[in-house]
Design brief:
The protein has 552 residues and is of the alpha/beta class. It has 15 helices and 22 strands. Helix 9 packs parallel to helix 11 and helix 13 packs parallel to helix 14. The radius of gyration is 26 Å and the shape is elongated. Pfam families: Acetyltransf_1, CN_hydrolase. It is an enzyme of class 2 (transferase).
Amino acid sequence: MPSSTNPKKRTTRRKGSEKYGQKRLDVRNAMIKDIPGIANLVRRVYGDMPAYTHGEIRGQINNFKEGCFVALLDDEVVGYCATMQLAEALAFQDHDWDEITGNGYGSRHDPTGDWLYGYEMCVDPKVRGVRIGRRLYEERRALAEENDLTGIVFAGRMPNYRRLRRKVEGPKDYLEKVVEGKLHDPVLRFQLANGFEPERIIEGYLPEDKASMANAVMMVWRNPYVERDQPVKKRIPRGVEAVRVATCQLQARQVADYDEFMRHVTYFVDVASDYESDFIVFPELFTLMLLSFEEKELSPVEAIERLSEYTPRLRDDISEMAMRYNINIIAGSHPTRMDDGDIHNVAYVCLRDGSVHAQEKIHPTPNERYWWNIKGGDKVEVIQTDCGPIGVQICYDSEFPELSRRLADEGARIIFVPFCTDSRQGYLRVRYCGQARAIENQCFVVLSGNVGNLPNVGNMDIQYAQSCILTPCDFPFARDGIAAESTENVETLTISDVNLADLQWARAEGTVRNLADRRFDLYRIEWDEDGKHPGKPRPRREPLGPTGPGGG
């Protein structure tokens, strides 16, 4: 039990030692830049169990950064712990690790919860004598005290159980003998020494934990500065975290050269910047205008090859534009030849700090596959921005809910959908799916599409769009779930403020809570390592209709 001269709470945290003025050991909140080090640490510590993917660690940090801590010794990650807040009823009921953590992403964090639930604690076994584990536990305790939480609960491993199981009558007897000092278990001994009390055995908690034979001990620490007879549900303040978003509904037009195309793009970036927008998103395949000044209409193969030649220049120019106009640019999408020779449809996200990110289209439409031989990407992940994590889904991808759920689990609060549709039916598929993604993931979804036509350029014969900014459907948001929308088939810039704090409130206290109410005991989405899979080639069946994009 921690001691303190403050009669109410103790919040002082140890932050390491210094030698010759240079701090060697630091314990602090985990950051996105720590993800590779954390992943390497977990692989070293749990060599016999599956390691975290980068996406899972990203989700843990984005979903509750205040509850994730790292210990760094000489700038190397040597300790990591992850926690989340949960309601008492959920934290103390029977559960397994996948279910309670939202499949490893920490996505079940509930800011109204009154208990701090620990679901990861690992320390490099090579680091001895500096009490990394004790320091991480102190961080957890300090966090619980600062937030007036009832206490800390977690399911601890019992790694000597398998080796010693013949000496006991079961996991409960094993626990009792460890508590009495008749048997030794390094993990349980450490937790008991840090003031945690065993509550009960949880069977089947982590099947991958062979040493514990999937058993775990529910360990509890109660905050000595909080006395409650009944569980208390904390409330979420209705704060303001405003982000201004601009969606560009772009008119297809003939241009004389690349420079004229870029002047056209710059115009809308300039306007969005004048309105102090944080983001601007352009439509899918907006660079097809670059084919309009070719001497003759190119075949699909020739067109893709020609467009791909612009990739380095386009990426550099838009990145420079993002910095110059101080705005984050989601640059629609652009056909790009990859290192392996395949053509992918790629959205380049150029942030105002100068960084450039790429999100490939995962699901090419039948027309894209047949006429352009475009291959699908194999990775989807959030992109960290100065306004928080965002996601990008190119057109057809928005019609596959698994992808948006992955992005939401990693912490995305805004999902941008550049699209290119040739008919009202195609547009409505994207529109209705975008609205569904906003509701089921309790996030904002921003659509941006092309309008007009471009003779002699394949895939730009006719276009239909009504770009919009969509919201969840609950009390803090627009009554029809539409923050803003453009006029159909008219070139324009549509701008709206969205309040990210409303999402936090809705996820915790909304009329419905789609993310929190998922039944992880019945279903879940499984991704392989780092969300990548080689997959199988899909047949290039001839699609119905012309060579247009096919409508999302």
